[in-house]
Amino acid sequence: MKNVARKILPALSLVVLPLGGLSARTEAPLVIDRETGHYGDLSYDALTDRGLSWQERRQLFGGETVDYGELTDGERGAGQKELDTLLARIEVRESQKWADPALLHRIEAEIVTWLDGQIEPVTAIHSYTGEDVQRLRNAAVGFFRAYEIFGGNKHLDAGLKCADLILGSQWPRGHWPWPGKGDRFIRIQDGYTTRPFWIMLYAYKLSGDKKYLESAVRCADVLLSIRRPGGGWGDQWAFGGGRSGNTGVYHGTSFNDGATNDPFQIMVMAYHLTGDKKYIDRLHEIGEFIARARMGEEPVVGWCEQYNDEARPVRARQYEIELPYPRALTRGVGPLLIWLYLMDGDEAHMDLLRRAYAWHEQVRQKELNPESLAQWKALARAWSPSHHTLTGNYLMEYRPGWPDAWLPDGSNWGRVLGFKMMAWNPLTVEQKKRYGNLVDHTWPPVTELAELARTHQPPPRGHNMYVHCHSGIGNSLSEIRRALLEHKRGGRAGMLNYYTHPTRYTADQYLQVRIHAAQRVLNMRNRRLAFPYTGRPGYTGMSTAEHFGFVSAKGRWYGDPDTKWGAAFQTVYPSRSTIWYQWQLVYDAKLARGRIDADAAARGGRGLESVAMHTHLDSWDVLGEWGMACHEMKNYFDVPIGKK
To answer: What are the boundaries of each domain within the chain?
Structure first.
């Protein structure tokens, strides 16, 4: 069928190539070097998804946005015939005893039975404290999404009971409790105050009860009241002064664990909810702050994790010191630059992002030599704890290009512990002199560590953390690569196409959506990964889940499979991610059969993603960007920042 699905590929006349990149017609495919097992070149000029498998595309660029155009009469007729054929094949598969009879029915029954069994224990929780904090948040989202897919008020009621308990614990000022602290302390990072905001909006969307909307607005207001002069937020705040006893900046801006990004997202959503420009009138200032806070001598472009109000770097925990960190780019600065650019169109944001990515790629390429890779493999094999292995691959094996931090002149990099950087490469006299208080003068370089490992000696000082880098295991560049790829192809318009999506499908769009859903249902890999091996050893399906932890785990869907990302690339049967494959298969079957209508199936654009911002979820994902979908809009970036 011609042009059934139109993936976002802007016309060539719209392509902008600021650095003289190749046109879409002459892009050379990305190539994995046989000797190293890594892509030889992932620079801006080289970026393309041409010729890549779906696994390679998603690992490098995250999930896809699939958009659909209108159909001609001929295409519409052919599409309807194709859908009818696919639906008939689904029914045949459901009835064949030799295949997987009643697969969809059995999976849906397993999911619903498990959900029903969770209602009583979850709604019996009486306090929003301790381990129940995360349990209640995940349960609320899980029950709400179940209601949207399966219907029936029992799941909605259960989700609202969770939301009511969360709402009841909100302090009068608008923030949520920080365990062990009183109401004058607010912790911003790690979602303590920001994640309940989205749950309140979800409850409002499904119930229409304004108490939830009022709760979300109170949260936005308290965050607005403690915004720093540079336009960002610190890790925490104490109303009336004093200290919490925990590390983190008060009078400054933090790019750590969502401290600035999460409130930024909330300010944009609060503006869309209320129309009040007070929430966005200073958002542009964070872009100016980022430019001032940039660290490094050319070609180094990076940021540390915490700053004071004058944009000078400060330290917090023992592994967060005054050095540029890769994770500050991926978790904080990178997404902010993307969002700012989509709102104000200032190419300076993308130029800064491109330069930061270029330095990261330069370090990666320097580390892609067989000798260095062999040294890291020796360290992992000798000293990685056995519980950190995954399907034969070492989770703690170093990823080229992912040290904890770099020296500002780019001359060395390594792991940060004890407020010192343990350098990968030998420290020169000049480096020791220039960065004396920031580097560990006695820690051996990787060449010496590898020799210790190969001769079966223990690691120096008992440390094995030289491999287990925060940056290495907990970060993905796919969000940044995706933005750069779309910008390279189509400028700001191309990027906006990727981030936008309808809130309701037209009849022609809905037909194409249903065809694609039916194709996914019949895909053998999808069926196999979701197959209910109930009762067999090693089964990881819905009935085996202890709680709703699978909700938060969905954010780690695409990325490097040998880290805590990459759940979608599991190929061992049964999969560790069986639950989400089961939800997806049932959802797609309902969508293909027309049991999820055109309004419910289209949930709006990606917006300022709050669920899987590092790796993106596909536009058709069963959970999707549920935070933004709490208030559906096609384009969340239509925000007049920096304008009176």
So the answer is: 6-101+475-629, 170-363, 367-401+403-468
- DSSP H or E stretch at residue 252: strand 252-254
Judged by DSSP in three states, 439 sits in strand
Q: Phi/psi of residue 37, each to 5°?
A: 80, 15
Token readout for 19 is 């650095």
* Residue of 456, 452, 467, 451 whose CA lies nearest to 395: 467
Q: Are 565 and 614 in contact (CB under 8 A)?
A: yes
- What is the rounded distance in angstroms from the CA atom of residue 256 to the CA atom of residue 247? 12
Contact 612, 618 (CB under 8 A): no
Predicted local distance difference test score (pLDDT) of residue 571? 63
Residues 6 or more apart from 549 whose CB is under 8 A from it?
138
Look at domain 170-363 and name its CATH class.
mainly alpha
pLDDT digits (tens, 9 = 90+) for 527-572: 999 988 877 778 889 999 999 999 998 988 988 877 777 888 876 6
| Bridge partners, 422 (sequence order) | 415
> How many CB atoms are closer than 10 A to CB 181?
16
Query: Encoding tokens for residue 621?
Result: 């994902």
Q: How far is CA 128 from the centre of its chain?
A: 26
Q: With H, G, I as helix, E, B as strand and everything else as coil, classify residue 549.
A: helix
- Chain centroid to CA 621: how far? 14
Give the CB-side neighbour count of residue 475, counting CA atoms within 13 A.
28
Residue 186: enclosing H or E segment and its boundaries?
strand 185-187
- Give me 476's structure tokens: 């993905």
Rounded to an integer, what distance in angstroms lies between the CA atom of residue 377 and that of residue 433?
31
Rounded distance between C-alpha atoms, residue 325 and residue 303, angstroms = 6
* Residue 506: both structure tokens together: 């037209």
Place of tokens 């709102």: 343
Per-residue pLDDT, 468:
57
Residue 17: what pLDDT?
28
DSSP summary character for residue 331: I
Cα angle: 80, vertex 81, 83; to 5 degrees: 65
Residue-wise pLDDT for 227-238, tens only, equals 999 999 999 999
pLDDT category of residue 114 using cuts at 50, 70 and 90? very high
Cα separation of 123 and 107, whole Å?
A: 24
* Token duo for residue 371: 């000798």
Residues 475 and 330 sit within 8 Å (Cβ to Cβ):
yes
Q: DSSP 3-state assignment of 430?
A: helix
Dihedral angle sign, alpha carbons of residues 120, 125, 128, 129: negative
Residue type, 19: L
Distance CA 488, CA 27 (A): 11
- In angstroms, the CA 581 to CA 529 distance is 6
Mean pLDDT of 417-440: 95
How many Cα atoms are found within 13 Å in the side-chain-facing hemisphere of 12?
6
